[in-house]
Design goal:
327 residues; two-stranded antiparallel sheet; single chain; TIM Barrel; alpha/beta
Length: 327
Amino acid sequence: MQRRFFHRLGIHIGVIGLGTWQLGDDWGTVDNHDALATLAAAAGAGGTFLDTADVYGDGRSERRIGQFLRTPEGAGITVATKMGRRVEQRPEHYTLTNFRAWTDRSRANLGVDTLDLVQLHCPPGEVIASDAVYDALDTLVAEQRVRAYGVSVETCDQALAAIARPGVASVQIILNALRLKPLEAVLPAAAAAGVGVIARVPLASGLLSGRYDEHTTFDEHDHRTYNRNGEAFDVGETFSGIDFTTGLAAVRRLAPLVPAGVSMAQFALRWIIDQPGVTVVIPGARSPRQARDNAAAAEAAALPAATLAAVGQVYDDLVRPLVHHRW
């Protein structure tokens, strides 16, 4: 798999990693054997970057990754976790004392002495703007609790604020064919600053897999059921913030652009890889086959300029009026 340089970690990583929210059983149950097999399949296909969080399954995702890291297939894997959502997201909770407690818990879950990368988990804007927060994060690095830190954000303005901080190694942001705003300023700013860009929700919660239609239903414990209107967390995390019907219409417009021999999901991932400034894409997978299929997008041919322009036109026609001003 193609690798890209993660500047502030000083390493090269596979351009398609694995997001592991689903391995915490927050998208329905995944048994432990399947979870470990999925992690091994992603690594075997060249995916050397795993993204998780301390709240995914209340630590279950981290613990499964920790179990995987102790296998031969887990050698050479970089793990990024996230912190900050175990309490109500108020600025006064983002303290060094809490950071130490949260990272110590993640270190124990993962079975490591030092976390490769810890990210603030979509904190309020006041937190991203706080000098004291970055002082505390720098202390975690000095104490060798973490190797580096980044910020997972909801909005482009938040991403730009984080990129401006000299200690920030990465920003994680929603980027997909139904969420184009980060292309305008975030990706160029990150590239200029040497900040890694982790593209999350790359398939728009599965919309861009092309497998769904008006009759598709989801488990009651799946956020695609319980968070469609932002009932539990930012609605932008579910179907990239657009209503399901509009999303299906956009995917049908995109379908004729998919090259022969490439799936809709692989096309959507390839589109992200082709955007200058992206360091790694983190699609989720619930099975080894899905992990391998996602990784295969890295081997697909780069999309021609006409196709990239056509994706932009679909966005302008159907999606831009709904989301561009929000995130």
